[in-house]
Amino acid sequence: MKSPRRITLCLMFIVIYSSKATLNWNSESAIHPLSLDEQELSGEEALRQKQDAATKSSAAEEYTIDIEISFENASSLDSVKAYLNSLSFPILENYTDQITNIVSINVTTVCRLAASETWCSCEPGYGWPRERCLHNLTCQEHDVFLPGHQCSCLKELPSKGPFCQLQEDITLNMRVKLNVGFQEDLMNTSSALYRSYKTDLETAFRKGYETLPGFKGVTVTGFKSGSVIVTYELQTTAPSLDLIHKANERVVQSLNQTYRMDDNSFQAFSGNEIKLSVTPEIIFEGDTVSLVCENDILSSNVSWRHKEQELEIQNSSRFSIYTAIFNMTSISKLTIHNITLGDAGEYICKLILDIFEYESKKKIDVIPIQILANEEMKVICDNSPVSVSCCSDSKIDWIKTEWKQEGNINISGSAEIHIDSLCSKYVFRVDRTQCPSGSSGTTVVYTCEFISGYGARGSADTKVTFTSAANLTITPDPISVSEGQNFSIKCISDVSNYDEVYWNTSAGIKVHQRFYTTRRYPNGAESVLAVKTSTREWNGTYHCVFRYKNSYSIANKDVIVHPLPLELNIMVDPLEATVSCSGSHHIKCCIEEDGDYKVTFQIGSLSLPAAKEVKEKQVCYKHNFNANSVSWCSKTVDVFCHFTNAVNNSVWSPSMKLNLVPGENITCQDPIIGVGEPGKVIQKLCQFSNVPNSPGSPVGGIITYKCVGSQWEEKRNDCISAAINSLLKLAKALVKSPSQDEKLPTYLKNLSVSIDKLEHEISSSPGSLGAVINILDLLSTVPTQVNSEMMMHVLSTVNVILGKPVLNTWKILQQQQTNQSSQLLHSVERFSQALRSGDSPPLSFSQTNVQMSSMVIKSSHLKTYQQKFVFSDSDLWGNVVIDKSHLENLQPDSSVVTMAFPTLQAILAKDIQENNLAESLVMTTTVSHNITMPFRISMTFKNSSPSGGETKCVFWNFGLANNTGGWDSSGCYVEEGDGDNVTCICDHLTSFSILMSADTPDPSSLLGILLDIISYIGVGFSILSLAACLVVEVVVWKSVTKNRTSYMRHTCIVNIAASLLIANTWFIVVAAIQDNHYILCKTACVVATFFIHFFYLSVFFWMLTLGLMLLYRLVFILHETSRSTQKAIAFCLGYGCPLAISVITLAATQPREVYTRKNVCWLNWEDTKALLAFAIPALIIVVVNITITVVVITKILRPSIGDKPCKQEKSSLFQISKSIGVLTPLLGLTWGFGLTTVFPGTNLAFHIIFAILNVFQGLFILLFGCLWDLKVQEALLSRFSLSRWSSQHSKSTSLGSSTPVFSMSSPISRRFNNLFGKTAAPKVLPGHDGNLASGGSSAI
User: Which residues contact 50 (CB under 8 A, 6 or more apart)?
Assistant: First the structure.
């Protein structure tokens, strides 16, 4: 309703009444049914009770009526309030048609004039609704209401309601501090102290707060430590801050002073909540995040805190806080720029107004952004469209995507964005002009960056390597060759980047990689197809293919191969024959296929015609040679067949030897074999002999005849059956075929089937057995990979030729060719190394004469390799174990294959060293990839000869006995044996067995231990001696180096001692890296061997320097060279030459890993003879120094005229010659014995002598190179016994028994002096005060 224009006071009543009839009210005052305003009256329980008492009718309705009353005089307000307070409710009113009860009448709003404005304020317990506070102007209030509730004063009365409303009850959580000590009983609610505190405090609180409008009660809820913190709840309507402070003062006044309440410690926590919102809802790393804190409390005292970091957030480069009051609301905004994962956590917004605190919390999670893209790409510059793409792994509202590039070349494109799939693609084209050969292989980095609406950025890089499509240049000249000739095709690429290079035929068959090599250069590459022996199968077109990703560069070349027999395929008859000088002999050459050839027989310069004869598939060219047509009687002539094809290429057959003899010497005659003299031995191809031939498939091999009396007798039969000979020819053709790897599986299958059928022929023919071994040897060089089926066929073939029926044939074959068994074993090992099982189960094979087991190394489930083999027919067994720790060093997917042979031990050659046969299974273990780390394998054999002597673990070394093979014990030793079985440990893989040895000591035997003790104790003693020598030289250096000769001699002695000291120290290092004949670190072993080799050589070269210096001083007496020049030459010779020899030896052998021995850290002997790089220089130096010593002695005994060096120089020369004369034989003798220990079968005495002499070299140098020098003795005595030495110098008496053992007057020294032409009789030199000196031979 509108207020009167002239008003001094306006009073608003609220009247609550109940009626049983509808009230007709025409006033402008607002009438609010209780049912519509229930919330405002829900707290007035007393009024409802009065209402219920006034009317019991359930149909009665309650209404709230606002009544406005204007007063001219403001003093009337108090009278009205007094009157209303005096009323007794309910008031009953009776109307004619209804009953009305007035429940309550209260003053709610009072409007007053304030200057030119009207201020309308609410009475205590009432407040303006929030919407009025927001949409009307508020006036300045002196009595501020409780924060969080409505304003109490407006400018102008609202034209229509609502007016001031009754405030609802609130509960304030409060606390106050008592400055008294905290007691634990306050934590116990049933304790007397707790009840006392609670009662007293609640009494004081009631007295203080009961004056608050709408006060309902106060309750103490608990106590906390920190002095004593009292927490309590206050129930009331919203009071003003001023009333709260006054009530707190009354509480302090009402409480007993013994509680010592702190009147400044009151705090209140309202249930009013702060609204805290976060934008965006889903936060990604890099976003700009806003946290907004809103509250009805009008205060700018707002703080922000990150709970995890426990620090209050301040304005900074990444954090900004803005706080303001807007529309009756306090707003604080925290902005986090470029948010990180570390910013995640709980954030707290706290608002403080006076004693009231308001707090709100919000936890935010930060999701990392991951952009997925290919890390690397390879692109061919062929103008094909290429796309680089990237995708986001999180669904984010990206607003844009940017692409950037960085590199030496600029290849631009266009971006395509697929928002639905959260991906972006960058498409470009590039041709050869944009990436010429100079930029081939150039890398450009493309960066894809996603940007979100809130600032988050995610990027990923893709390295794109641009490569020009290869331009291939192939050999331009036409290739036209004949069979048997070689040819090569070179294919050159102008780019060096490729994934694969291969050659194939026009039929699409890949050429085996053994026929071509490929090299990469900085600006290109080349592949060379080289064929040493061409066959007709090589005729056709060949394609050189460089593949890079899906781009292929191809160059073609035609090869024409003209027919021409290969020399090995030309069969001649006879191989050798005797021809009477007056007789004749048929000679012929045969080939398997006919061709357009011109054939002649050549005898020296004589050319003879040939008649052609075709018989089935064989073509022969014949000539009847008449001996009387030549004048070469009693002479041997060589006859050749000369084949010339259509392109004028030719080939010569193997020679036929014709021995022309007088007819009277011939006793043996045969129409097929020919004639011969008594005792004559000739060979014939089996197909041209009396051996039966199969139609269309001739036998192979050679048969040997001997003329005995008048008959030819068969001496040796190496014939090969026709069927096996045919298989051998196919094998020889296969290894020359360009597609040999594709033909191999079929051939191995046919071979297995054929050999199984031909077992009888093999068991009766050494030639056939040898042919099968040659076939396996040829085929084992072909495959790079062997599958399970191929390996089964190989082992089936091996099972037949190792059968017991064939063992006698093996014995005959071994008498003729000793390496056939080694050749077979090597072939089988090559097949096993090429075995690749792939995803198929590990292959297992078991036959009577061979068993095989295998395992594929899988890093995901690695286990110990254990295999056991049992041959019940042979009563032999064995097992193999490789620990899991050693298998870990192998490459993943490597195949470990073990095969066992019960009969192979009977046919392998005898042990080269010991002449003993193997007495067990032969087990061979191979790995498909090279072993680069230390390896150890354990094998257990059944010992079939438990009492036959000492057992040795051996392996078959294919390099022994001129590569024919033999047993070797290097790297193997017996771990244990109980008579029935023997366990061997080896540090390498190949074929293993055991030997029985009578004289070779086991490493753990008494003799072996004795050698170790001698070596280690002796080396320690030698090191001490050498160290003593160096110490002595340091002490006496100034006293004994007064002339050039003396200076150089002692320089040489010092370097000899130092070199040997360092070499012996490295010997100790070797002992540390070897454990029971097992090298723990291969690299350390190589380093130790190099330094031992170098410093041992240095010892000898410094001795050579000493000898050459002696020779120089005696021969070139009048020639003077400066000390620096002599020293430079000495160091170049002493260290330069050993360094050159050591480095060359290492470079020549280490790339093949044959620099050191297999189980010892010293120069290799078996494989490369690298030990000679030490032995030869050392022995040469020994011989040279001995020669120099002899020359010096001769020169001194018979001096030439003018050869009179000064006394000191001559003394120095004597000492040098003595040192060389003693040390050189000793060192030379030491290494002479050492060299004998290298060879197999060396007597153990040589090992012991070498060990003793070697370890005492240090002592020899100390005694004969240092202490034997008289000047050194004098210098030592003068330094350490000066007074005694001086008294002896003052006397002329003889030295007697006190003479040093190495002084020139001692008996030992006199003998050496006599050897060099001087006596040691002491004499007094004039002018020297009786000082003793040796007669002209004082030491240097």
Answer: 89, 90, 103, 104
> Which residue in 755, 753, 748 sits closest to 721, CA to CA?
755
* Full-model pTM: 0.49
Opening angle at CA 1131, ends 1129 and 1134, nearest 5: 105
Phi, psi of 570 (to 5 degrees): -90, 120
Reading the block at residue 32, the tokens are: 């609010």
Residue type, 301: N
User: Under a CB-based contact definition with an 8 Å cutoff, are residues 63 and 33 in contact?
Assistant: yes
**Closest listed residue to residue 939, CA positions, set 987, 905, 1007:** 987
Place of tokens 């390295």: 463
674: alpha, beta or left, given left = phi > 0 and alpha = psi -120 to 50? left
Alpha carbons 347 and 320: distance in angstroms, whole number:
14
Task: With beta carbons less than 8 A apart as the criterion, state whether 1098 and 1055 touch.
Answer: yes
Per-residue model confidence as pLDDT tens digits over 718-751: 898 888 988 998 998 888 888 888 889 999 999 9
- 1328 in the Ramachandran plot: left (φ > 0), alpha (ψ -120 to 50) or beta? alpha
DSSP annotation of 1266 reads I
**Cα gap 906→889, rounded to integer Å:** 35
Angle made by CA atoms 1271, 1277, 1281, in degrees to the nearest 5: 160
Q: What angle do CA 569, 571, 572 make, to 5 degrees?
A: 145
Determine contact, residues 981/912, Cβ cutoff 8 Å. no
With CA atoms as reference, report the closest residue to 91 among 102, 104, 106.
102
Residues 6+ apart with CB under 8 A from 438: none
Query: Which amino acid would we find at residue 343?
Result: D
For 48-98, write each residue's pLDDT tens digit: 443 444 344 445 677 777 777 777 776 777 788 788 778 877 777 665 556
The Cα–Cα gap between 775 and 1143 comes to: 42
Q: How many CA atoms lie within 13 A of 537 on its CB side?
A: 15
Which class for 440: exposed (0-12), middle (13-18), buried (19 or more C-beta within 10 A)? Answer: buried
Task: Collapse the DSSP code of 1057 into the 3-class scheme (helix H, G, I; strand E, B; otherwise coil) and give the result.
Answer: helix
Going through 369-512 in order, the beta strands assigned E by DSSP cover 371-373, 376-381, 386-392, 398-406, 414-418, 423-428, 442-452, 457-468, 472-474, 479-482, 487-493, 500-505
CB atoms within 10 A of CB 720: 27
Backbone angles phi, psi at 1253, to 5 degrees: -65, -40
Q: Could you tell me the CA-to-CA distances from 925 to 175, 741, 900, 1079 in Å, in that order?
A: 86, 25, 9, 20
Q: How do residues 230-268 score in pLDDT, each as one tens digit?
A: 888 888 877 777 888 888 888 888 888 888 888 888 888
Cα separation of 252 and 230, whole Å? 13
State the Cα–Cα distance between residues 625 and 1144, nearest whole angstrom: 59
- Cα–Cα distances (Å) from 5 to 8, 12, 164, 408, 1147, in that order, read 10, 17, 21, 88, 120
Q: Hey, what long-range contacts does 116-122 have (CB within 8 A, 24 or more apart)?
A: 117/155, 117/156, 118/3, 118/155, 118/156, 118/157, 119/153, 119/154, 119/155, 120/10, 120/153, 120/154, 120/155, 120/156, 120/157, 121/152, 121/153, 121/154, 122/150, 122/152, 122/153, 122/164
* SS3 assignment for 166-198: ECCCEEEEEEEEECCCCCHHHHCCCCHHHHHHH
SS3 603: strand
Q: Is 484 left (phi over 0), alpha (psi -120 to 50) or beta?
A: left
Cβ neighbours of residue 319 closer than 8 Å, sequence gap 6 or more: 313, 334, 335, 336, 337
